[in-house]
Q: What sequence folds into this?
């Protein structure tokens, strides 16, 4: 593994995740240390590698060595040992969660080795703020080829042959949508990139925008050319300041190199691009609401038809595509539609990008061929459940999706299989939960979200989600009645059928899937007033296991409600007073000896109710 | 205030389509949307004042009250939820003595919740003044807040 330093590059991730773990001072320290050592080594900042959990991440190329959780004080050792003396610092290697072994080469880390990266290929390897890096990586080649050698109809045909389906959620065939728009004869059309990424628990689009903004811009130009749009927008979520900044830099660079603007590369095609900063409304991810928002109004959906492809922004034909859908386009043109079609399944060609989070050992951004099983994703790439706990369910599709139990682990993931199971592919959020998560609470969580985010325009969604949320809260509080479950089911059907847009139409999915696969948990809450996952506060009790208790007093100090008494010196055993306990769990999480027990005893024998005299 | 407002408005066209960017810029300038700016914005964008309020109240980003010196956002997204965001939020609320949506009496901290910061792999997460803090435990959350409180005081001296 000896390397000549002049060919070496040290890459330091500067994605939002790594920055929050302290990656900026590490870059500065490395730069200073390398200079002080008189070494001739290139340094590069990159966007997200998708493994933020291990951040800050430093990679040394071409050695392919991956350092995780690097601290400033580790920098001299990396420079001295690895860069000067060619001995990588094993102490900073990633540790495999299953075997516990240190793994130095990132290509052999299970998290990466099991992926097939197309959209994410350049993430973490190029400097998003230096356009030359993107050009060297072949970004814009597809666009140049399309503009120079292909007619718009040929571009649409290529995307059709590739079989690309939209990655924003519904999986609508991209070429079909484009075809409608291309057929419209008018003076102006618009091409919009949907970067609103509203699913709370997903960050695929954010990472792509931060790591390879030019890939998205290239896709927008190709799409604009195909449909005949000369003006484009990127609708970006307000909560993503870094992504917005990088996009703005990238647009400026692309304009300077005539990759955007008038007569791009001498092709005669004009395309202007602008970033529109969202202002915080989940429903604006829905395409007609998004259009309303760019027009300067309240982002409320309207009924379709007319579809935006015919009548969209300012009444003009408009196409809206997700960040990931657009990111494939360059490669589909350069490598050909057949290449793309050969990946994945017949029904859903290509790859799927997921933000794998929750209770898995390896959280992060992953890309696998469509048709990969959930087991492979969660256990091989994700490294299984943390803390040796038991897998319970995986949630896909965010607030529009559902929770699938263990029996689906061997299901190959694509648009059709997930839909059949009652969930959806969605934009790529994948949250894994273990035995400690209550599925009724999970449903309540999503209904809280959709209820809050419902724009209020149509009654089934506005009132219906509120009713469902109230019922779920009632059940979680231990006040549920058996008929509440049937009411939930009835409401779900009416909301699905009666709502105006996708938000309402899919809002009941989290409830329906949990009812379908975890009905026993609802019944335990309702009939026995018991939370089997020991999660719903109102149904919990805490006790101290006197044998395990070492009288250290940590629980008492941490209890905000003064509900714990006891004294080490006077040897008074510690005790939790139920009348004062607010079930906050601080004692449980703070006890160094695991001496606090969490219980959900359920109903004890109750006194027969006095019969009211009549 | 009117002068600063004029300067912001001067950068935008006079069409209703500029309303959201104008509101964002006004909020960046003042930290919130002062009531006194509403007439000016409405006149500039050529829309009724009711429309300005309609839009400003629709989006969660806009606020009509100034924030405290430190702006705390606790994430309540799915990934954070299953990793204990509720406990973090409760603990932060108790520590600051305020509920979400409120500002402490000394004007030191404002507390809000957000749907997802996009750092789900580091759950549970909160931001303080847009800086992300991940892998929180109740204790590390309060320790982080204490740092911001003291950092302010040191700067002020
Ligand atoms: C409530 C709601 C929220 C949505 N949020 C998003 C989103 O955040 N990102 C996205 O790309 N699509 C979102 N969609 C889907 C879009 O309406 C649209 O179908 C998609 O952007 C089309 O792009 P595609 O064809 O490339 O998938 C959402 C839909 C609904 C109903
Ligand atoms: S869910 Fe909290 S950052 Fe995404």
A:
């Amino acid at each position: 593994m000896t390397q000549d330093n002049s060919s070496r590059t040290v890459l330091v991730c500067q994605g939002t995740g790594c920055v929050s773990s302290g990656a900026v001072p590490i870059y500065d320290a490395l730069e200073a240390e390398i200079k002080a050592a008189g070494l001739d080594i290139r340094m590069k900042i990159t966007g997200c590698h998708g493994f933020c959990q291990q951040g800050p991440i430093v990679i040394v190329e071409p050695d392919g060595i991956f350092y995780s959780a690097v601290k400033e004080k580790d920098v001299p050792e990396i420079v001295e040992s690895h860069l000067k003396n060619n001995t990588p610092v094993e102490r900073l290697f990633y540790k495999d969660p299953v075997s516990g072994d240190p793994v130095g080469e990132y290509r052999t880390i299970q998290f990466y080795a099991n992926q097939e990266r197309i959209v994410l290929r350049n993430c973490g390897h190029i400097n998003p703020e230096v356009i030359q890096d993107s050009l060297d990586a072949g970004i814009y080649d597809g666009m140049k080829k399309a503009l120079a050698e292909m007619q718009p109809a040929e571009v649409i045909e290529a995307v059709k042959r590739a079989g690309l389906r939209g990655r924003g959620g519904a999986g609508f065939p991209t070429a079909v949508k484009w075809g409608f728009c291309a057929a419209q004869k008018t003076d102006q059309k618009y091409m919009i990139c949907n970067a609103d990424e509203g699913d709370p628990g997903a960050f695929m689009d954010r990472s792509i925008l931060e790591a390879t903004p030019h890939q998205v811009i290239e896709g927008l130009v190709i799409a604009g050319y195909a449909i005949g749009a000369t003006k484009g927008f990127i609708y970006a979520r307000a909560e993503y300041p870094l992504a917005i900044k990088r996009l703005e830099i990238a647009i400026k660079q692309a304009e300077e190199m005539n990759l955007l603007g008038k007569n791009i590369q001498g092709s005669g095609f004009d395309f202007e691009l602008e970033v529109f900063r969202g202002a915080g409304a989940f429903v604006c991810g829905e395409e007609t609401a998004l259009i309303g928002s760019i027009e300067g109004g309240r982002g409320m959906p309207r009924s379709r038809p007319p579809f935006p492809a015919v009548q969209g922004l300012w009444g003009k034909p408009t196409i809206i595509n997700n960040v990931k859908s657009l990111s494939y386009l360059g490669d589909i043109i350069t490598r050909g539609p057949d290449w793309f079609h050969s990946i994945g399944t017949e029904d859903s060609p290509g790859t799927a990008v997921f933000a794998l989070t929750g209770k898995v050992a390896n959280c992060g951004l992953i890309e696998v061929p469509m048709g990969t099983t959930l087991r492979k994703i969660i256990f091989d790439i994700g490294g299984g459940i943390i803390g040796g706990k038991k897998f319970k369910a995986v949630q896909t599709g965010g607030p529009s999706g559902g929770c699938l139990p263990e029996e689906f682990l061997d299901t190959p993931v694509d648009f059709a299989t997930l839909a059949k199971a009652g969930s959806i592919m969605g934009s790529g959020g994948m949250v894994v939960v273990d035995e400690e998560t209550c599925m009724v609470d999970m449903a309540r969580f999503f209904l809280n979200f959709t209820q809050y985010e419902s724009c209020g325009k149509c009654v089934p969604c506005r009132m219906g989600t509120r009713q469902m949320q109230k019922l779920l809260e009632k059940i979680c509080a231990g006040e549920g009645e058996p008929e509440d479950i049937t009411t939930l089911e009835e409401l779900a059907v009416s909301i699905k059928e009666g709502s105006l847009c996708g938000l309402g139409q899919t809002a009941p999915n989290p409830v329906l899937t949990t009812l379908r696969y975890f009905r026993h948990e609802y019944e335990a809450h309702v009939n026995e007033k018991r939370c089997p996952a020991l999660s719903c506060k109102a149904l919990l009790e805490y006790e101290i296991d006197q044998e395990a208790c070492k009288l250290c007093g940590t629980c008492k100090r941490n209890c905000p409600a003064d509900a714990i008494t006891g004294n080490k010196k006077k040897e008074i055993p510690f005790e939790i007073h139920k009348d004062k306990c607010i079930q906050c769990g601080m004692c449980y999480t703070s006890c160094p000896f695991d001496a606090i027990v969490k219980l959900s005893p359920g109903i004890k024998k109750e006194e027969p109710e006095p019969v009211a005299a009549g | 205030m009117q002068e600063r407002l004029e300067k912001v408005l001067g950068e935008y066209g006079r069409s209703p389509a500029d309303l959201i960017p104008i509101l964002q810029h006004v909020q960046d300038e003042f930290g919130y949307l002062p009531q006194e700016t509403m007439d000016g914005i409405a006149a500039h964008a050529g829309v009724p004042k009711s429309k300005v309020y309609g839009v400003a109240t629709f989006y969660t980003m806009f606020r009509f009250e100034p924030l405290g010196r430190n702006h705390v956002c606790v994430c309540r997204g799915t990934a954070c939820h299953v990793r204990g965001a509720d406990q973090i939020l409760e603990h932060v609320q108790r520590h600051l003595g305020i509920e979400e949506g409120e500002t402490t009496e000394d004007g030191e901290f404002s507390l809000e919740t957000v749907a997802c910061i996009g750092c789900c792999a580091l759950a549970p997460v909160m931001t303080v003044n847009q800086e992300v803090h991940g892998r929180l435990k109740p204790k590390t959350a309060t320790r982080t807040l204490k740092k911001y409180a003291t950092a302010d005081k040191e700067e002020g001296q």
